[in-house]
Amino acid sequence: MKNLEQFVGAADIQCFDHIEEALRFLDENDEGGHHEKLIFLHEGTHEVTHTIRITSDVQILGASGSEDIATSVVLTGRHATVLEFQSSAYMGYVTVKYEVDTEHEAHVAQDMEVDAPRAGEEVPVGEPGGAPGAPGEPGEPEEALEPEKLLEAHTDPTTNCAMIVTGLHVEPIIEHCNFQSGNADSHTVVVKDHAAPKMRNCTCIGGSGGGIIITHHAGGYYDNCEFAQNLQSGIRVQFQANPYFYNCHVHHQGDVGIFILDDGLGHFQNCQIYANQKFAIELKSAQANPTVTECEIHHGMSGGICIHEDATGQFLKNRLHHNEFLAIWISEGANPIVRKNEIFDGKHGGIFVHRYGKGLIEENKVYGNELAGIFVDTGAEPWIRNNHVHSGKQAGVYFYDGGSGVLESNEINGNTLTGVQIRTGANPRVIKNRIWNNDNGVLVHEAGMGCFEENTIFDNSMTNVFIKTMATPVIRRNKIFGSRGTGISVTDGGKGLIEHNEIFDNAQAGVLVLSDSAPSLRGNRIHGNRSAGIEVSSKEELVLAENRVFRNRFGGIMTASCSQASEDQNQVYDNLDHVEKAIKKGQCLFSVSGKDFYPMHNFYRCITCNSSDRNAICQSCIERCHEGHTVMFLKCDRFYCDCGADHLERSCCLRQT
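Structure tokens predicted for UBR-type domain-containing protein:
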């Protein structure tokens, strides 16, 4: 129609200047509820002076010639909440805006400041602030409250907003609507007291407070909605509220994206949660227990997900990436399920279980993070199983400062520093994992502990298992092979029990014990290593008992001059003994070792050639190259021959031949 009057006349529709009048007309002409109640809210800004309460099943529909109908049909108020749904009505294609009446707020603050009793001022009995007593008796002096605190006492985070939905069986349908609020003390939309709206294609953008709060047993279904650029959280769920969010975008909040606290529940599926100032999702307090599944969580300024203060929750099949800090932070008794998520390319670490945190962490892919894939510290004890932790730029899984828990049946590979690292009193149980192709497979140091059982630890670049600096792990029934260095290295005061392992096919020694270390090796089968089976160069007392050592290249059990190893019932047989055979043939040991190996044998210094204590000369070179010279025995230990390596002024005659 060309004009509104023509349209109204043709359709026989009543026309009103204010929405309150239209609602009143529909209620007065209900005729027993047999007719649909339909209000077209036309293009323009409709200002209300008090809360519009929707108590019947009315339908309110924005009507405009604009392509974007909702932005051209605006319902606004500044003195109280604009809309309150108390029925299962319908609203679509409308912008609802609460604008703070700054002049009114200033008057309230001024009145409160004038009326507030001052410190030391006597207040008569019966007046506000007075103490109980007989008429005429002065009350006890009461310290004055600051105006800001009085204002805080009079504010409610669920009032003075754009829209409230409240009440049992209240299930309005709200579609293609925009909600805005300038109230910093409230959320833009409030859903409470068992209400369960269905909101589709709606927005809460640019609020001075939070986006939407769902509280006190409320629920609802929220589909394809956007919550963005609010100064507080985008979504807040508390007090046994249990909403369902699907395909929503939650981004660029001034605080967390989604905040679940105080028994809050909820289901969040297929949502995009990103670029929030703090965490994308925060769970706080006992019984906070939402489900978050198939969501994309990224570019959080403080991290991805924070779960603390005994909260639980289920986090399933999400993708977390490019967060500034940790992807998932679990602490203070929190006990979530973290399953089948993909956690990658974080600018810090992947998952951090901190300060008595717990949780079941399983079947996740954790890779490409700047620090460790998974951290565990300070009394935390998660169960970490069936994850693939790989390609991290530091450790794969890192236990420290008293962290414990179970690390079971994980695939841990391709991490730059270490597959599994344990230090400073941490004591996890590490069972049935495959730890491979890291720089070091396992590193236990600085008084770390841990029990490693039935793991397959192989093909690591430096050492498969590295124990040092007073660490005391138990290494039991593992398969340890294929290292490009040693199978197990124990050095710098390392200890521990190493028993019933199969240690084979490592590029250097099967087990290497150095520098004041004192492990106990019992019942291991050590074979096929390219250096010796067991090499010991430690002054501390250690036990070698009931080991089978065979088919190792340089020899079986080889001990240095200083060693105090106690050997008992070991079976050493069929070793290739290349070191001993080379000496018997008069060959320089460098021809056997090159610079890649340090064979255990007697080494000497040539006084005549003025070689230093740091230059070692093998027995064959002493007998041939330095024949007739004054020589001095140094010790039996691990060296390659400096004569054969041409590190002395005189060339090695054995190498020349």
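The chain has a mean pLDDT of 90.
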